[in-house]
Amino acid sequence: MKNFINPYYLVDFNSSICNFKIYINDIPVFSHSGGGIISSHYPINHFILESGEQKIKLKILPLKGETILKDDAFLKIKVHAYDDYTNNYENLLEVFNFETPNLSNPKLPLIEIDANFIADIPYKVSGWKNSIFLDDVDKIKNELISFYEEIYELAKTQNSIAFYKLLKTRLDEIDVAMYMRNEDNLTELKNMFDNLNKENFLLEDFPKLSEIEIYGENRIFNLIRSDKNPILHYVNKITNEEFNLPLFVHRKVNSSNFEIIR
Predict the structure, then answer these.
(1) Closest CA to 11 of 79, 61, 97, 76
(2) What is the pTM of this model?
(3) What is the pLDDT of residues 244-253, one digit of tens each?
């Protein structure tokens, strides 16, 4: 690990003329649906629960309205780490690399890649390791909707203290994984609501129709709107800008309550 003190893992992506989705340990990390050129990176430590083998999944999709990938479409993905303790970006450790093959023959409707990489980190968080396994969402659908209604009402009324209590496990684990110390998450939450108000973002009504997504090898659940936006979906009616706060939940073994975990 090159003697890294605080290894900070990033997924680095570069694509053109295609859409794609990235999953780490079966949790959606990043999704691109704009079709054009994009080049960026995204931190993934908070999806890594402990050292060892990690799963990465890629879905490479055609442009919206098309059924096959274009011949000149491409996606390049790397996962690398640097030492957050030193912020030495030049001393990178690459642990995964993928690039799309020639797409001209045969014509493909999509590409799905399942692979692994090794992460070496100094922390360990529980995450969804001790969560119930469930492949029949009908068993929990009503309870799940009720829990998201509770989340929604706290966000709508901007009850920062009660909302913070629901988010605490999520925030605490992310702080550990991102080496963030002495964070005042309650103040940050209040600031988020203040900024949404100042920038004229309004929370969309709770949807009459919703869908349940299952991740984390059938241990993490997400309730989304029928248009695929998260339940906490804000819109500025003047500028048409959007702000989303997706929240993934689980239920620990021997518990009857849902909990926000990511």
Answers:
(1) 79
(2) 0.91
(3) 999 999 999 9
Q: What percent of the chain has pLDDT over 70?
A: 100
Sign for the CA dihedral angle at 7, 222, 115, 40 comes to negative
Torsions phi, psi for 108 (to 5 deg) = -120, 140
- Cα of 32 vs its chain's centroid, Å: 12
If residue 203 lies in a helix (H) or strand (E), which one and from where to where? strand 201-203
- Side by side, the strands of the sheet bearing 233-236 are 201-203, 233-236, 242-244
Token pair 């939940």: residue: 249
Q: Compute φ and ψ for 106, nearest 5 degrees.
A: -85, 165
> Buried b vs exposed e over 213-233: b needs ≥16 C-beta within 10 Å?
eebbebbbbbbbbeeebbbbb
